[in-house]
Amino acid sequence: MFHIRTVLALATIALSASSHAQGTAAPQTEPAQLPTAVSAQAEPYFIVTRIDGRKCAYPMCGGYFVKAVNKAATRCADGKLAKECHAVELDTQALGWDDTQRATFESAFSEGKALVKGELTQQPLGHSTGNVLRVSEAWQGQSGHKRPLGTFYSLKNNGIVCIQAPCPAFSLSQLNRPARERTIDMPDFSLSGATEEAIQAAWVALEQAPILAVGVVVPFPAGGLQGTVYGQKLLTSEFYLPAKP
Q1: How far apart are CA 242 and CA 245, in angstroms?
Q2: C-alpha–C-alpha distance, residues 148 and 227, integer Å
Q3: How many CB atoms lie within 10 A of CB 52?
Q4: What distance in Å separates the CA atoms of residue 53 and residue 64, rounded to the nearest whole number?
Q5: Which of 101, 139, 151, 226 would be 97's cystine partner, CB 3.0–4.6 Å?
Q6: Could you read off the pLDDT of 145-192 as tens digits, one per residue?
Q7: Which stretches of 157-237 are DSSP H helices?
């Protein structure tokens, strides 16, 4: 979660830059291959917390420690709740990747630059049993930041069209807490550190399906004929597009 000083600082920047953000047109680039929806089923979304550097035999050691985003506790492969859980490897068979593609994605995932949706399970590995993260969705981070800050959301264009601002044209659902949904006027990717190409790809993707984003919702002046009217926007520290390693 954002430190309160970070929230205030980013909110100030967002307010001062709001005119520019409102004037940014939805770019025209080719979209990535997207899922038709971000599922709200039981499988959680995970992020790496740290690499497992313990020195013991595989598969008891090695791989990563992961956590379910937006959650104080994660259910591990043994069924117990913990602050973080061990996963010795990713099982990406459901995605149809070859070994090279999996290795490429794992490099980003191990650095905290990707998210996966899936299930922690105990599977036979060699002559023993290890904790495996079985992946059903893989998402690649686009920002220039080392770690995402804020709340993790599914972000979608909800199709609402208005004749004046503010306009709640986008919907946010907290990952791993799908019942908590709210509407906002717009996402703001400008402080994410992502390239212009990645930001363009995000806008194009939002025309078709949800993407994932991390950040904080802040007010911004959205015009008004009789005094300033404020809307709400998601100030993003990171956003994710479907992984294509």
Answers
A1: 10
A2: 35
A3: 15
A4: 8
A5: 101
A6: 888 999 999 999 999 988 877 899 999 999 998 777 899 999 999 999
A7: 196-206
As a whole number of angstroms, the distance between CA 101 and CA 95 comes to 10
Whose structure tokens read 């025209």? 28
Contact 1, 151 (CB under 8 A): yes
Calculate mean pLDDT across residues 81-92: 96
CB atoms within 10 A of CB 131: 22
pLDDT digits (tens, 9 = 90+) for 17-48: 333 333 333 333 333 344 434 444 579 999 99
**CA-CA distance, 113 to 31, in Å (whole number)?**
20
pTM (global) more than 0.85? no
Instruction: Find how far residue 153's CA is from the centre of its chain.
Output: 6
At residue 128, what is the residue type? S
pLDDT, tens only, 223-234: 766 667 889 999
> What CA–CA distance (Å, rounded) separates 217 from 22?
16
Q: In the predicted model, what is the mean pLDDT of residues 98-102?
A: 93
Tracing tokens 């990535």 back to the chain, one arrives at 32
What is the phi/psi pair of residue 240, to 5°?
A: -125, 140
Q: Where are the beta strands (DSSP E) in 73-113?
A: 74-75, 81-82, 85-87, 89-91
Cα(170)–Cα(210) distance, rounded to whole angstroms?
10
